[in-house]
Amino acid sequence: MQKFRKLPWRPILTIFGVLGLIIVSNLFFQLTQNEFSFDLAFKFAFSWHTEKFFLGCLVLLIFYVWISSFLGSLKTGSLFYVLVVIGVGIANFLKMKYRMEPIYPDDLKMITEFGMIRDMVGTLVFLLFLLLLAAGIFLIIFSLRKSLKLGKKQQWVRVGLFVLASGLLLYIGSFNQQNNLLRKAYNKTALWIPYSQKMNYYNTGFMGGFLYNLPVDAMEKPENYSEANVKKITKEYQGTNETSDEKPNIVYVMSESFSDPSRLSGLEVLGGDPLEAYREVADRTYSGQMLSQNYGGGTANIEFEALTGFSMELFNAQMTTPYTMLMSEFKSFPSMVSTLKERGYEATAIHPYNTSMYKRKDVYKTFGFDQFLDESSMKHTDKLENNPYISDAAAYQEIFDQLEKNKKPQFLHLVTMQTHMPYENKYADLPYMVKGDNSLSVQSYLQDIAYSSEALKNFLNELDELPERTLVVFWGDHLPGIYSDEIQKENQGHQLHETEFLMYDNRHELNNQQVTTSPFYFGADLFQQARLQTTGFQTLLSDLQKELPAFEKGMYYQAGQWSKEARLNKKQEKIYQDYQMIQYDITAGNQYSLKEKFFE
To answer: What Pfam families does the record point to (predicted)?
Structure first.
């Protein structure tokens, strides 16, 4: 009994306390991943995927040691660790709720986007976020000052643990590199699902999914990638020169969350058609549905596809946001902007919000835009009633200002904000009702798109008065993440990913045709429809569009039918592989195709 009492109980209890904290924190992540279902979380941890759960605990333990050694205290280290876990867990729960996808490592870079966070989660949750942030900053300052008083021996132990934990975290950061031991340990039991990150996190746990989305090469290298083979492709697909002297103004409008709710099964819009004004225009020109990569979000990825002609489907699954994960590696990048600037165009980007979201300020510079107008530099900033965002009508007026004052042909790229979430409490009058999901958010959203629809129609009517030929590509980036679980289940697959698009010519020379397409085809499609000079890359895209009109991971549209996998014959496979080769060449290869002027 005497020996039992002399055991070092304090350090033993500390160790068990830390291990308990790590296990509980990992369970908390699982709860946020599974809509706070304790049954699912505990079964994942202690029945179905125990090995993966404790591998995640090991990573969290290393992170905990790193924090505590940095702060020089187990107490404040534990408190700071808890604040981080709570913050990331809540963010994961909210993102799963509104966008049906989990938090990725790259999302953590958005922590300073205060305006965006406030608009997305509401004032109450935003204040909680600020409180957590303030508490974390206070803990860091308080603990670092207190740590200066530690004895010499304690400081050496602290430094040693910090260096060890830092080295281990750096090694964990290379999770996706070949021969990484942690990845190999996961691979023994993990079933990775790259085409669905939501399922990936479910199957491997929050920590496994999070690690899987650490930095990785943009694409796998094609086996036959070489300068000679790239050159062969560029020679095979030659651009056209049908009307090379014509340089019409070109306007891109990516409309936030613009979609047609009446296309969803289980919904019936009452009180009129909120898209009546839109249909009056769309039914008389080239239009239809566009396949969006995500539901409820992913704006920057759709914008990337539309501007570059490159598909998200071809990237490694971990390349979740090229704007933040890829573009910083390039000083310039081939796109619609660079193609048109080679032809004497002036390029302007307009986004009626701040410049920091998705690193747009830096990305637009890489694309080659001559100027970027945001909420602080726009002249027209009117808003509708209580809507916190600048209206579409005001943004369209900004476009007219650019068209009127510049003599050069213009490429104008507008990303709207009027129809961004949250949707409640924007408008006093909500004339539309919805049978099947009549929430206040859905009612408000219908009024939002009605206003957007009218603003678009007025904008296009005014374009008809311009003497210069002006072409417009208008599309919705994704559906809003506001529909009930029942509606989402009833519309699984492409129904939750189809938005509206149209192309418009103020000379009315485009085909009156209804199609289904993907955003990376926009540039090539517009040039063909308007009979403009196309690049070799656009010719390749046009050939691919004929065989595979729309596709994203798990959604392929061929011959009027949807399927979860592409079914390609030899001819189609050849075109697809050529496209894959060029995308790899630009995003991860040696850019041989640029030397061949494939994008000019």
So the answer is: Sulfatase (PF00884)
d(CA 423, CA 406): 36
Q: Is 234 left (phi over 0), alpha (psi -120 to 50) or beta?
A: alpha
Long-range contacts from 368-372, C-beta under 8 angstroms, 24+ separation:
368/332, 368/335, 368/337, 368/338, 368/341, 369/337, 369/413, 370/346, 372/348
Q: What percent of the chain has pLDDT over 70?
A: 97
Give the Cα separation of 30 and 14 in Å (integer). 24
φ, ψ of residue 31 to 5 degrees: the values are -65, -45
> Cα–Cα distances in Å, from 343 out to 31, 246, 400, 439, 524?
54, 10, 22, 49, 16
Question: Residue 578 CA to chain centroid, in angstroms?
Answer: 26
Q: How many angstroms separate the CA atoms of 20 and 80, rounded? A: 16
Contact 442, 483 (CB under 8 A): yes
Domains and CATH numbers, the chain: 9-212 (no CATH), 247-534 (3.40.720.10)
d(CA 584, CA 218): 8
Confidence class for position 543, pLDDT limits 50, 70, 90: very high
- Phi first, then psi: what are they for 335, rounded to 5°? -165, 180
| Its pTM surpasses 0.70 | yes
Residue 320: predicted pLDDT? 84
Q: Is 268 within 8 Å of 434 (Cβ atoms)?
A: yes
Cβ atoms of residues 219 and 588 within 8 Å: yes
Does residue 274 have a cis peptide bond before it, meaning omega lies within 30 degrees of 0? no
> Can you list the positions of beta strands (E) in 230-345?
249-255, 268-270, 286-291
Smallest CA-to-CA distance from 253 within 454, 467, 501 is with 501
Q: What DSSP assignment string belongs to 467-503? A: SS-EEEEEEE----TTS-HHHHHHTTTGGGGEEEEEE
Helices (H), 174-270: 181-187, 197-212, 227-236
* CB 477 within 8 Å of CB 299: yes
- Per the CB < 8 A criterion, the answer to whether 411 and 346 are in contact is yes
Whether the CA torsion 330, 520, 323, 339 is positive or negative: it is positive
Q: Identify the three-state secondary structure at position 286.
A: strand
Distances (CA, A) of 544 to 140, 237, 549, 591: 54, 11, 7, 21
Token pair listed for 400? 């007219």
| Residue 95 region by backbone torsions, left for phi larger than 0, else alpha for psi between -120 and 50, else beta | alpha
Write the burial class of residue 68 (CB in 10 Å: 0-12 exposed, 13-18 middle, 19+ buried). Answer: buried
Q: What are 264-315's pLDDT values in tens digits? A: 999 999 999 999 999 999 999 999 999 999 998 889 999 999 999 999 999 9
What residue spans of 368-465 are helical by DSSP H? 392-405, 440-463
253 — phi, psi (to 5°)?
-130, 110
- The angle subtended at Cα 321 by Cα 395 and Cα 165, nearest 5°, is 135
